[in-house]
Automatic annotation (TrEMBL):
Domain (RING-type) ranges: 13-56
Family matches, as PANTHER family: E3 UBIQUITIN-PROTEIN LIGASE TRIM-21-RELATED (PTHR47156:SF10), PROTEIN CBG20824 (PTHR47156)
A single GO molecular function term of this UniProt record: zinc ion binding
Name of the protein: RING-type domain-containing protein
InterPro entries, per the entry: E3_ubiquitin-ligase_RING, Znf-RING_euk, Znf_RING, Znf_RING/FYVE/PHD, Znf_RING_CS
Species for this entry: Panagrellus redivivus
Keywords from the named record: Metal-binding, Zinc, Zinc-finger
């Protein structure tokens, strides 16, 4: 049987002991099912990989952190969420916008480079694709009739 203290403890991240909030300390869904706040998971994530603090199972975060919506809704229904700290919320929101901006900038650069190349070289009807290497360089890949690729560094 659960007591009120158990519920209050369940409303906190076991790492930083902060009470969950809707955003900055939102409970994050991990592959193993354990929950930790967004801030702790962000701090412990390296190269889009988070290792659970409790069981050490790996969660891939390459598409972003996923909030445990069911847990968040339960905490909301029981009125156990802490209010957001406006300064922390603004900083976290800015970090998420910066990541989105970087991804959008890459897409924009690739699109612009591909469009420039295609129209400058009148290669509208050829089989062309764009690839991005680990260093952020953008390459245009033209596939010759025999299927071999020809790489041109665009940026």
């Amino acid at each position: 049987m659960y007591h009120a203290n158990d519920l209050l403890e369940a409303a906190k991240c076991i790492i930083c002991l902060e009470t969950y909030t809707e955003f900055t300390h939102a409970p994050i869904l991990t592959a193993c099912g354990h929950a930790f706040c967004r801030e702790c998971v962000e701090k412990a994530t390296v190269n889009h990989v988070f290792q659970c603090f409790e069981c050490r199972k790996i969660t891939l975060c390459d598409t972003g952190l996923k909030v445990n919506i069911n847990m968040l809704q339960c905490l909301q229904a029981m009125n156990l969420l802490a209010p957001e700290d406006p300064v922390a919320y603004a900083a976290a929101l800015e970090r998420s916008v910066i990541v989105a901006d970087k991804n959008q900038k890459l897409v924009d650069n690739i699109t612009m480079a591909l469009t420039e190349y295609v129209f400058q070289n009148e290669k509208v009807d050829q089989n062309i694709a764009v690839e991005d290497d680990e260093d952020g360089d953008i390459y245009l890949v033209e596939y010759h009739s025999d299927g071999t690729p020809y790489y041109t560094m665009v940026r």
